[in-house]
Amino acid sequence: MGKRGRMPKSECCQDKPRCKRCPLRALAEGTLPPGYTVKKRRLVKVGKA
Questions:
Q1: pLDDT top residue among 5 and 24
Q2: What letters, b where the CB count within 10 A reaches 16 and e where it falls short, cover 19-49?
Q3: Of 5, 21, 43, 47, whose CB has the highest number of CB atoms within 10 Å?
Q4: 15 lies in some domain
């Protein structure tokens, strides 16, 4: 879950440059927690298929 174990924010605030806890940044860096993804700038839990 990232460097210190903090969850990303639940929604992107759309600031430039991206804040440290931005879900879009975490997605790009590959630091999203397992079972989570980003859809429409929001952090969502992946359901079972």
A1: 24
A2: eeebbebbbeeeebeeebebeeeebeeeeee
A3: 43
A4: yes
Output DSSP code: residue 35. Answer: T
Residue 46 falls within a domain, yes or no?
no
Q: What mean pLDDT, rounded, does the chain reach?
A: 86
Q: Has residue 39 been placed in a domain?
A: no
> What is the distance between the alpha carbons of residues 38 and 24, in angstroms, rounded to a whole number?
7
Nearest to 20 by CA among 44, 2, 42: 2
47 has a pLDDT exceeding 90: no
